[in-house]
Amino acid sequence: MASKQHTEMVELPILPVRQIVVFPYVIFPIVVQDPALAEMINQVLLHRKLVGIVTEKPTAGDDVELFRVGTAATVLKKFNMQDGTTRLLVQGIYRFEIEELKEEDILRARVKRLTTRIKDPVKVEALRRAVQDLAMKVIEKSPFLPDQLAGAVMEASDPERLADLIAANLNVQIEERQMLLEELVLDRRLELVMEFLDRELKVLEITGEIQEIVNEELSKNQREFLLREQLKAIKQELGEEDEELDEWEREIEDLRKQIKAAGMPEDVEAVALKELERMAEMSPAAADYPIARAYIDWLISLPWNKETKDNMDLQNAKKILDEDHFD
């Protein structure tokens, strides 16, 4: 990919956006709530102009501050919604840097078109292949990324387009996404994309392991519960009594009555009853069963509604202490 060194200056109407960063080549949905901005989009469509899309910096205050680097985009579709908002489909065209911002009826800016540079073409190609492979692993594991993204990633032979496509879909902070937009050296941009992909893959793998453990525990408890119910139904059908099951059910019900009678605060009682429901779904032979039982017994044993009368007689306290500590 050849590097272009000239700087092209143009003036663009500016559309500020929040919580998204628009990248070249990628299609984005945008919601416009300000009627003045919606009218500006009408003029952009009428005259077939580009619009400059710039992300607002995340700030705690009311003052709006824009990043200096944005993306010139073309408006593909415009929809006027019943709630008064305007929904757009835009496609990024090129990066730019704001040289001069003009606050008139609408926000306009004199901008400098930015071009991507390559330091080492061989390294860039190696990075493209590595990013492609890593992105496919992330897409496969992520429940939030669309399936069609995999096809787009595999078909992206241009390393710059690949980097921007993945950057637009990465689960990263706005500042990190903006960092990728502002990075003009493609070698470094691909390295950053790889770092973020690798981090995301590790998070997805750990999340998957945690979910698998939770699912296994739930499946085990549910299976035990269903087997107990089936065994109970078979015993009843055969006219046989299951003393072990009856005793277990009586134990659960007795604990429920003790919880209700303990005088616990409402939030504590809710915790105790929730733990009892969890215990009711376990087999008495389960490893967690005695732990849950001990926890509930401890909650019941606490003197929630019992009080002792304070004895403020200091002479009596001195007498008791002397008897305990001196011959």
Descriptive notes:
This protein is α+β, with helices and mostly antiparallel strands and 327 residues long. The protein has three domains: 7-114, Archaeosine Trna-guanine Transglycosylase, Chain: A, domain 4, CATH 2.30.130.40; 116-240, Methane Monooxygenase Hydroxylase, Chain G, domain 1 (Up-down Bundle), CATH 1.20.58.1480; 242-301, no CATH class. The protein contains ten helices and six strands, in the order ββαββββααααααααα. Strands 1-3-4-5-6 form a five-stranded mixed beta barrel. The radius of gyration is 33 Å and the shape is elongated.
Give keywords:
327 residues; alpha+beta; Archaeosine Trna-guanine Transglycosylase, Chain: A, domain 4; Methane Monooxygenase Hydroxylase, Chain G, domain 1; 3 domains; 10 helices; 6 strands; 17% strand; disordered N terminus
Element string (H = helix, E = strand): EEHEEEEHHHHHHHHH
Which sheet architecture does the biggest sheet show? 5 strands, mixed, barrel
% residues in beta strands: 15-25%
**Alpha carbon gap, first and last residue:** 97 Å
Poorly predicted regions:
1-6
- The gross shape turns out to be elongated
Radius of gyration: 33 Å
Q: What is the number of strand segments?
A: 6
Question: Any idea of the CATH class of the largest domain?
Answer: Mainly Alpha
Kindly give the count of domains: 3
Average pLDDT metric? 85
Helix content: 40-55%
Q: If strands are numbered along the chain, what order do they take across the biggest sheet? A: 1-3-4-5-6
Number of helices: 10
